Amino acid sequence: MTEERKTIVNSWNEWDPLKHVIVGVADGCMIPPPEPAVECKVPIDSDMKGKWGPRPQDTVDKANIQLDNFAEILRKRGIRVDRPIPLDFSQAVKTPDFETESMFGCMPPRDVIATVGNEMIEATMSYRCRWFEYLCYRPLLEKYFKEDPNMRWEAAPKPRLTDRSYKEGYLSRVMTIEDRLKLTAARDFVTTEVEPLFDAAELARMGKDIIVQHGFTANPAGIDWLRRHFPDLRIHAMNFPGDPYPIHIDCTFVPLRPGLLLNNPIRNVRPEHRKLFEINGWEIVKSAQPAHKNPPPLCYSSVWLSMNVLVLDPKTVCVEASEVHQQEQLHKLGFEIVPVPFRDAYPFGGALHCATTDVYREGSCEDYFPKQVEGF
Ligand code: NVA
What is the pTM of this model? Predict the structure, then answer.
């Protein structure tokens, strides 16, 4: 029944009632070979350091079981769910400017496609191995374009990703976590300003205001591109000292409903950025501690996937089933919790927010921040 829901592309924020979503697929996912952007992002103590190639099939199967179950949970709540079409990710990527020996996968749609109002944008991406990942979403975007006459389909300029797009020797300069923290607090990241770069998962959408994390996977040129692309919206760049690997905003800064957002307690909103939220009556709550001491094996992300929740409407939120502290906190904040087992899918690119991209949430573009702060 839900499959028959008319196609409407529209989503302005992270909390309005969700009606149609894309959920990723783990098939064929690869651990990509080293390349300038990937290398600095693999944590020093990660079991993935120096490894690349296909992920073990049993881990792919387990991840797909949880992804399919998540899709079913959403469908049962009346939400239409579409899935991307995987490619052969073991194939090499070659453009006139670079070559790399494999692709990545299509588990986290949030990384690749940003939906802003009636527009779906294919992000530039910032890893070479993810350059062609948008192709997994093309069958869906082509369909939405045909079915919704108001849908806008956009692609940000494909980056060249030559060596000029990355700071030479960035990795070798960085030896310890403390060194990394100093660099990231000083907004010294791996990419240069040669061309606009952003992954879609750096966006946190809040109606007329969009926060974009400046970090390893979005540079100021990319944020400037978004600003010029959306002249009627307000694009704010933020970074969060305390994160040695700042990649994707949704384990750091998570809007939950108008007036309320979660902030990672070790990646604090900077004082100069806090003001925008305070003067508009927003509460910034420090998220609960993760239930786990370590991420699962072969996982890029931190234990803070605990706060990577998917809000279904301002009173309902999907939280990973074992993340009991996060569930308890959100329950106390007035949410009904939908527990979703998902740790087997984490290594494929993240948790419940990462694993989805909005197509349609009810609601329109509202101004939640009528008082603005100059220069931010
Ligand atoms: N880079 C983030 C994950 C974002 C989904 C983290 O590891 O905390």
Answer: 0.96
